[in-house]
Specification:
alpha+beta; Jelly Rolls; five-stranded antiparallel beta sheet; 291 residues; three-stranded antiparallel beta sheet; 10 strands
């Protein structure tokens, strides 16, 4: 029988202080103390992981990444992930709530960073040796500062987090290189609406109306920022949820379709196959064989 996928909050993890919306640790200690991270789960916080040694694999929303020295991951709230790691794995990890980051800055929000402001962003970065040295130094400082109780501790921690994000942001990325900040802001609003409404609103016109723009302009925004149509973005979010439910719920295909707003099962199966290339049942079988 399938178990409902757990969603962990920061207070699930062993904290060295009473600060309940930030956590950091050496990766080896984190893995040793939290064995449940080896199984598929979600978080309700923003997460950064840097690997400095070891091997393994890390699956994020059904995409598998190989782990090696210099690999860094950034995960948004709600993303499904788990890993299989070698015994010698090490590095650094930190996570925080949106509120924790935003309260440290007046004119900067966590979603101003391209890897967090769209679900189109990749969670995976391969750092160069120069970048690795910089980020390694900052994250070591972060763990050290977190374990102490020095004057201006939390101000320094906010500054160190920002330094990590700045370094990651300097990686080449489609969203980060976009020159049109107005379009990026509109894309973020569109994706926020998709997240809230994808189970009920299936058509571009629904979102264009909420954003007070034309369907044509909304499609222009999507194509300019991520190279996809508005319809593709809506469909991809629905398909991601369908995959999660197929693997981690006890619902059958018909029930999953209904949960996602498709009350004609044959139509839902066609929709899934069109976007994934195989039927929901075939996807479930293939995933189980792979894992």
């Amino acid at each position: 029988m399938k178990n409902k996928m757990p969603i962990y909050s920061i207070n699930k993890f062993e904290l060295s202080t009473n600060e309940g919306d930030f956590y950091t640790n050496f990766l080896s200690k984190h893995v040793k103390n939290h064995h449940f991270t080896n199984y598929p789960h979600k978080h309700d916080f923003f997460l950064v992981i840097l690997f400095t040694q070891g091997k393994g694999k890390h699956e994020v929303d059904f995409e598998t990444f190989q782990i090696e020295k210099g690999v860094l991951f950034v995960l948004k709230p709600g993303q499904m992930h788990y890993w299989e790691l070698s015994d010698d794995v090490d590095g650094f990890i930190f996570f925080h709530s949106k509120e924790y980051f935003d309260k440290g800055f007046i004119s900067l929000s966590i979603k101003d960073f391209h890897f967090y402001n769209s679900f189109q962003g990749t969670p995976y970065f391969q750092l160069t040796e120069k970048q690795l040295n910089k980020v390694n130094f900052v994250m070591n400082e972060l763990v050290t500062e977190y374990g102490n109780n020095d004057f201006y501790k939390w101000q320094k921690i906010h500054a160190l987090i920002l330094l990590v994000y700045i370094e990651i942001s300097r990686e080449k990325h489609t969203l980060g290189n976009s020159k049109n900040q107005i379009y990026l802001t509109k894309l973020r609003q569109f994706e926020d609406l998709i997240e809230e409404n994808f189970r009920s609103d299936k058509f571009v016109k629904d979102y264009a109306f909420k954003l007070n723009i034309t369907e044509k302009h909304l499609n222009r925004v999507a194509k300019s920022c991520v190279g996809k149509t508005s319809t593709q973005l809506i469909s991809e979010r629905t398909i991601l949820e369908a995959k999660r439910m197929l693997i981690y719920s006890n619902l059958n295909v018909t029930q999953i379709g209904e949960q996602l707003g498709y009350f004609d099962n044959s139509y839902f199966v066609r929709f899934f196959k069109k976007n994934v290339g195989i039927t929901p049942f075939a996807f479930l079988v293939k995933y189980k064989e792979r894992n």
